[in-house]
Design goal:
Structural class: alpha+beta
Order of helices and strands: EHEHHHEHE
Number of helices: 5
Strand order of the largest sheet: 2-3-1-4
Radius of gyration: 25 Å
Distance between the termini: 14 Å
Shape: elongated
Helix content: 40-55%
Number of strands: 4
Length: 176
C-alpha cells in the first residue's frame, strides 16, 4: 500500500480561527487529511465531520468471542478432558462457570479494543510516526492537506485558501 507523502500544512494560532478555517476549507471542496492540536478542541470533530467511533462494536465482538471461548473451554474440560462426577452434580454447572467466563470476556474485550485502536489510529509498533510540525505539541494548530487526495485542485489555490482562512504560515511537508 502506497502512503501519501506530500502535504500542505496550514499553521494556526487560535482554535476558533482553526474551526472557522476547517469549515471554510471543507466548504470549498478540499479534503482535509488531519488536524493536529496541542490540546483537545471542543467541537472540532463535529466541524471535521468525523463519524462516531466503531470501537464499542469491536469491544462487543471481542467480548462475545471471550464468552464463547470461556464457555467452550470449560465445557470441554468438564465433559471431555476430565469428566468427574462429584456428588451427583452435572457435567456443565453453568453458575460455576460465571467467574471464568466474566474474566475472559473482559480480558478479550480489553485486548481487542486496544488492538483495534492501535491499528485504526496508525499507532502500530512497527509504524514510523509522522510528525507534521513539532509545534503542534506546544502551542500551534496544524491542518494537514494531502496533495494527492486533492489532485483536481491546484496547490497554489489550496495555499491561498489556507492563507485567507487565517493561517499564520503555510508550508509544504514531504515524507519518504
Amino acid at each position: 500500500m502506497e502512503r501519501d507523502t506530500n502535504f500542505i500544512l496550514g499553521i494556526y494560532e487560535d482554535e476558533d480561527v482553526l474551526k472557522d478555517a476547517v469549515t471554510k476549507v471543507r466548504e470549498s471542496g478540499v479534503k482535509i487529511h488531519e488536524v493536529f492540536t496541542p490540546y483537545p478542541v471542543h467541537g472540532l470533530e463535529d466541524v471535521l465531520g468525523y463519524n462516531r467511533s466503531k470501537l464499542p462494536i469491536a469491544a462487543f465482538l471481542f467480548g462475545l468471542l471471550g464468552t464463547c471461548l470461556a464457555l467452550t473451554m470449560q465445557l470441554l474440560m468438564m465433559s471431555v478432558d476430565w469428566p468427574m462426577i462429584i456428588g451427583g452434580k452435572d457435567f456443565a454447572p453453568l453458575p460455576d462457570f460465571i467467574p471464568v467466563t466474566f474474566e475472559l470476556t473482559v480480558l478479550l474485550a480489553s485486548f481487542g479494543m486496544v488492538g483495534v485502536f492501535m491499528i485504526s489510529s496508525d499507532l502500530k509498533p512497527w509504524a514510523q510516526p509522522r510528525i507534521f510540525d513539532l509545534r503542534s505539541t506546544d502551542d500551534k494548530h496544524v491542518m494537514a492537506i494531502d496533495i494527492a487526495n486533492n489532485a483536481n485542485i491546484e496547490e497554489a489555490k489550496i495555499k491561498e485558501l489556507l492563507q485567507s482562512s487565517g493561517a499564520s504560515e503555510v508550508n509544504n511537508k514531504s515524507f519518504e
